[in-house]
Structure formats: C-alpha cells, structure tokens
Amino acid sequence: MAEKEKLRIDKYLWSIRLFKTRTLATEACDGGKVKWNENNVKPSKSVNIGEIYEVKTAARRWTVKVTGLLHNRVAHTEAIKFYEDLTPPEELERLQFQAASFHTGKRLSKQGRPTKKQRRDIEGFMDDDGAEEE
After folding, report:
1. Which CATH number covers residue 78?
2. Residue 134 belongs to some domain of the structure
3. Domain tally for the chain?
4. Which of 81, 99, 107, 121 has its CA 20 to 30 A from that of 65?
5. What's the whole-model pTM score?
6. What is each CA distance from 86 to 54, 62, 100, 101, in whole angstroms?
C-alpha cells in the first residue's frame, strides 16, 4: 500500500483537471510551467499533502495547495475536493477583464444570420416599402 501513496505531479495535475491530458501536464512540467518553492518541477516528482504549486496553464495561472491525493481522473465536483485554490485575487480580476474583452468568434444563440422565414419576412417588408413610394 506504500506504493499507492506515491503520486506523480503530472498525474495529480491531470486528475484534478488542471490539464486536459496527462501528456499536456507532463509537457508543462518539462517546459517549466509548474513550480514548487520557486523551482521547476520534473513530471516524476512525488506530490505530498500540504505542498503548494504554481501552475501556468493556457487559460490562467494557478496557485494550488494539495489537500488530498487523487490517483484517477474524476468529475470536476469531486476533483475540487483534492486541492485548494490559492490564486491571488489580482490574477482572477485580470482573467475576468480578459474574458469580458475577449471575443471568441462564436455567435450567440438566436443571433446572426436570419432564418429562411425571417429572410422572407425581411424581403417582403422591403418589397412593400418600395411599392408604397411609387
């Protein structure tokens, strides 16, 4: 059972859902995006309860405290029980500003190009206006 208590940092970050795949978590460790005590972490480093890690993902910077060891990927509602988010408030504010000003290119529901029926109504409306002026 002692072997079960050891958990690699890359597997931990994947299981708490900071990274979509374990490969991305490993690459982040190798790329210097995961730090512990301001030092880069190798993917094979063992995680211990109480340690605090700084993690930079594509979306944001995280400061997480390990509150439990999670060996398998679970639903987000379960995963959040195994870490404590200590991310500074100014980082969260920066994200909110960025999200508000960042346009994803996706159109909102019920907006955008008119449907066939709406287009016919518009064309009918435009044709009626032209007929009244003559």
Report:
1. 3.10.290.10
2. no
3. 1
4. 99
5. 0.66
6. 9, 7, 23, 25
